[in-house]
Design goal:
Elements: E1 6-15, E2 20-27, E3 33-40, E4 44-49, E5 59-63, E6 68-72, E7 75-77, H1 86-98, E8 100-111, E9 122-132
Parallel strand pairs: 4-9
Antiparallel strand pairs: 1-2, 2-3, 4-7, 5-6, 8-9
Length: 133
């Protein structure tokens, strides 16, 4: 049996600054139907800025959903409504959030953070040979 679900209908309930939210009706492999909530997200990037001695640069960010400051790797969303190159987004976020640029970039792959309900793809990069911007 194929494990593919076919979208039958879509109702977009929210158009936001960062995300859109929709409710789909999907046909399941056994022929029945089910509701699927989907958060459409433009995708994002995260950067692991690594010094030769093993030091990793992090930033403190207030995250509203958690109501507190978190210690994170520099990261951010890709420009909504564009096909922004993830490497360009990673370079922008490293500069904006950590005040750094890197001469050596390695793509580490991507993560589907919450594939059960979100379309977000998070691209990960290793940044080395760091200098202040």
């Amino acid at each position: 049996m194929e494990l593919i679900e076919q979208k039958l209908k879509t109702l977009t309930s929210y158009h936001g600054v960062i995300v859109n939210v929709r409710l789909d009706e999907a046909r399941l492999p056994d022929g029945s139907t089910a509701k699927r909530e989907v958060v459409e997200h433009p995708g994002g990037v995260t950067v692991l800025p690594l010094e030769p001695d093993g030091t990793v640069w992090c930033v403190r960010q207030f995250r509203y959903p958690f109501g507190k400051l978190l210690l994170e790797l520099p990261a951010g969303k890709l420009d909504h409504g564009t096909e922004e190159d993830p490497l360009l987004g990673a370079k922008r976020e490293l500069s904006e959030e950590a005040g750094l640029e890197a001469a050596d970039w390695t793509y580490l792959g991507c993560i589907l953070a919450s594939p059960g309900f979100s379309s977000e793809v998070l691209h990960m990069y290793l940044a080395r040979q760091l200098t202040p911007t």
